[in-house]
What does this fold into?
Amino acid sequence: MGSRNRRGGGRRLRMETLEPRLALTWAGVPPTSIALPASPVAVTLNSQNDATGAASIATTEIDYYSFTTGASGSYIISATTPSSSVDTVLGVFSSTGQRLSYNDDIAYPNTDSRVTMNLTAGTRYYIGITNYTSSSRGSYTWTIDGPAPTTTPTDDAYENNDTLATANNLGTLTATRTVSSLVMADAADWFRFTTSATGTASNTVSIAFQNAQGNLQLALYNSAGTLLATSAGTGNSETVSLNGLAAGTYYVDVYGNAGAANPNYTLSVVPPATTPPATGGFQITLNMTGLTASQQSIFQQAAARWSQVITGDLPNATYGGQAVDDLLINASATPIDGVNGILGQAGPDAFRSGSRLPYHGIMEFDSADLASMQQSGLLLSVVMHEMGHILGIGTIWSDLGLLSGAGGGNPIFVGAQATAAYNQVFGTSASGVPVENTGGAGTRDSHWRDSILVNELMTGWAGPGTNLPLSRITVGSLADIGYTVNYAAADVFTPSASSLAAARQAAGSSAAAVRLVGLSATTDWATSSVSTAGIWQNSPAAHSPRLPSLPVSHIQPIDANLADAALADTWDSSDDGTTELFCRPEAHDSAAADHAWAELASDWNLWPALA
It folds into this structure.
């Protein structure tokens, strides 16, 4: 078509300037990157990593929001239109503006928008929300739904018990033990317990819990750390059997499947019951810690030995929630002071009212010395010795008024039955049993006098020898304390000639009795001592050859006047003016003295059986 003739009154076309418009919408797809918005709406997530809000789109604007994640995990971010028909488009961008995810329609004809994505804790993100077309306008609700924080439950009072070595000790069990309100908040909970009889089909270890709160599993180990049984189901309980397992110490490992925690579970142990003796006799129950299986056997042997001596049952008691019949002892191996120092220490700490007889005590043995004592054969005697203290020997004498002269030069135990046994053994008429008058606070006034009873079980020094006899004197002292005893269970105890002489001297016998010390002085007096916490270990020292000890049956009284000459040759004056017998090696040359006494013995034909 040709143009209209300008002349003839026609009009010219005029270009019109367009007015400014808002930015166009994203349509269905946000850009792969954006310039970071200058003024986004700052959103703070709550403690559950959630947030929500409402806004509206009037034309074609894009609303931006920023937030920082509080936890890593899956986040659901949505824009919904419960009260409008806005067709939303949603995009999620990184802290540098890079598009991470977007959505137009959840599922058409539902034109709301929603994305699910994994976000990293402590990171800043941006959300953009707009409409699909300019004709779609109205209000919307935005929501950020993050992962709930994982909370670790506060652990229980039985911690720290995360390994076999730190297992919580439930003690020796003879009745069902249930521990409630336990918490699995770490890798594992370990417990240990000791049984006193072989398990049956009715004896078990079990845990009860809510699996929905965390799946727990159960394992049982022996004292050597060998796995015996496991229970790893998917229910609300786990159980392992003790059927056929011999008496001993066992370990329980409770742990979460794949590291699961659980805020509440219950542990139950149904142990084999210990059949009481038909006589209802004296029972010693041991809770043992840190001891090998063979050492535990020795401790049990020591307890059984004392139960042969003490036969009468005592009123039951309760210690720490555990029923006690008749004595409960916590025995442990623990570092004390290294090799050859303190071997052990023991004492009662809970007493029956009225009788004052103990029902609980503690024994601790230096772990550095246990193996050597076991190897030498001394361990049984040392354990029995310490158990004797827990029974009350040397530890409750003063409380019962049975110790006289404590702290002085001649303390004695004045119990009538022990004194009678002592006088019978030693042929004296003493008013009490001589008590140790040397050594430190853990030795003197709490043991029999070593210079007289020598190797008896309850002297303050271990030895000579390793099988230390439990004499009728010690049995009698237990009767004086208040126990019912069996004298027939005592060991044979025959004092040496030097012990007989020392006993008579201690009892204030005549000068002739003193001369008997000289007659029996061929006994090996040259010894060295090593301190062992009130128990001293005697060992022969290097010395000149001696004549053999004169048996008690060969000691013959001699005329005092005829012996004075020999005695004069064997007395020695010390620096302070006092006089000492040659049988003290630090006071005189005992070899020369022996020679003098040997000549005297030869003259009087005192050695016929030893010739």
Remarks:
- The chain has ten helices and 32 strands.
- The mean pLDDT is 80.
- The two ends are 164 Å apart (CA to CA).
